[in-house]
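Thread: Modeling a multi-component assembly for a lab meeting

Hi all, long-time lurker, first post. My supervisor asked me to bring a structural picture of a complex we are working on to next week's group meeting, and I have zero experience with this. I have the sequence lines for every component (678 residues in total). Could someone generate the structure of the whole assembly? Inputs are pasted exactly as I received them:
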Amino acid sequence: MNEPKILIRYKSHYENELKNSLSSVDSQAYSMLRYCMGWEDIKGDLIDSHSGKGLRPSLCLFVSDATGTRLHLAAKVATSIELIHNFSLVHDEIQDLDEMRHHRPTLWTIWGKGKSLIAGNLMQIAAHNTINLIDFGDESSKISISNMLSKACIQMLEGQNLDLLFEKKDSIELEDYLHMISLKTGALLRASLNLGAVLNVKDTNIKNAIDQAGKALGYAFQIRDDILGVWGTEDITGKPVGADIRRKKKSLPIVHAMGCDSGKYANQLKEIYSNADISDAGVDQVLEIMKTLKTREYAEGLTEKYLQSALISFKESKVNKLFQDDFQELIEFLATRNY
Amino acid sequence: MNEPKILIRYKSHYENELKNSLSSVDSQAYSMLRYCMGWEDIKGDLIDSHSGKGLRPSLCLFVSDATGTRLHLAAKVATSIELIHNFSLVHDEIQDLDEMRHHRPTLWTIWGKGKSLIAGNLMQIAAHNTINLIDFGDESSKISISNMLSKACIQMLEGQNLDLLFEKKDSIELEDYLHMISLKTGALLRASLNLGAVLNVKDTNIKNAIDQAGKALGYAFQIRDDILGVWGTEDITGKPVGADIRRKKKSLPIVHAMGCDSGKYANQLKEIYSNADISDAGVDQVLEIMKTLKTREYAEGLTEKYLQSALISFKESKVNKLFQDDFQELIEFLATRNY
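Re: Modeling a multi-component assembly
Sure thing. I ran the full set together rather than chain by chain. Output:
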């Protein structure tokens, strides 16, 4: 599948800004951040970029492009969003003991947990600092953007906290799961679109349309991630099949399997999940139950539902047809992405 | 020893603001923060406050009081500083596996490392948010205060990172140690004074005098901490004698003992430190060497030197004599504090 245009077109805009924001050479800590971003190897030598998709900064710049002309400012805001996203990845990897990201060893496996914790914190402050240093022409824009980003961060952290609380619970209702992902993943994605619009759009209806598109996109993105967490194949995602089952993540597939058919399989699943470690046979049993319940089809249907909803909302923003086509292409990519 | 007036007088100002900033009841995450601040027990019930000394917010309010009248604004800035300080404590405790703070179990021992990591992050964003929400009347004050706080945070994290880098090194020069603590501990303490002055003081000489007082105070505070880390008695600090030796911290006493008398004992110390764990006998040997080298006297002398330097600089700020007396009382307290 070809990379959608939205993910290509704005890369050079935000990558330059990102590099500027982490260019300090005075401190070893910034080397860790540049490694994390995929620009340098362990020794600090430049490498061919191994960055992620850049979905969030691309969305911010795309919305800014579609609604106005202040793309050079949006590039700095987009940078800030990508730094926040990476801050959360670095800390998540420490917490989940993830050893690989994009086929590269994670920060903590190289520099240890203590220094990686600090590197994550530094990444977060670098994000706020990036906003602080933007010259918007008027100070009130800066303050409202800073507020929006802080709010998204707080929601993201609250979602992460809920996610951990859910791990200890026997079963989770769909509604609670959706609330959790709307914070954990949705808040920053939604903010990415809203922050692209904020400098350009005054019309409340258009603002709302973009906000609703971002909200729906957040659900779809996390549910697709949850699908990959169970059925993603190892050579694509770097995680073994059933990874999220083994980790007892209360992701959508297990939420569905637990609650489906009036919880017909709930007791069996709870028994498997009650073991300290879930064996290979246990993982297979869970996968078998999900097959019977058509859990994967359900999850893919839900992804599709939210993606369509995002598309409809985005249409209401009444931006130029060319941008609408770009958004549709992105939506199609997100529906079937394998990484 | 009586608590100095500076640490008592401003408590009510910042404590109310602190409580406001962490009052959200929607999210379990904030309960962790209120527990951390010493206001609630594990169940979320109110308790008699078990807060820390509040040195940083008190210093901010004290300087604001001594140089002007905008104490209500300084109280919010002071709140933000205290939140940053607590964010760093929460993460440090996870990293160092500290089980107690002020005779209470630390956050991670109750809620686990994952949720405590998140709680620390939330505390940090709450700090930035507190600044965002202040109505200074002019937006540029907000931005310069936000910049000062971010800069102090970045320096603090760089210092923490250096501290961890030093743990892996055989020996550390005094100069490198002083640079590290000027960042790790000094940056936020120094910012506490500077942030108290920034709203009131325009005169560069006065600004510099306060800044230099803060810088010297930072050195003195950390060196006193290092003394307590080795010789502090368990019932006062909650840490056993020799705690920092056992943890192989490159704190001032070991920096001194390694380098003293042309490194006469360096090899012996390195051999003890080369063991994966330092035994009780090893700790006693190190303490014995420090006794021979008068390391404690040296460290106390250095504390005294920096405290006197802080006092002299503060005098140059030319604030009212009553405030100078208050500052002197604080200095005397810090020279001999046991906690």
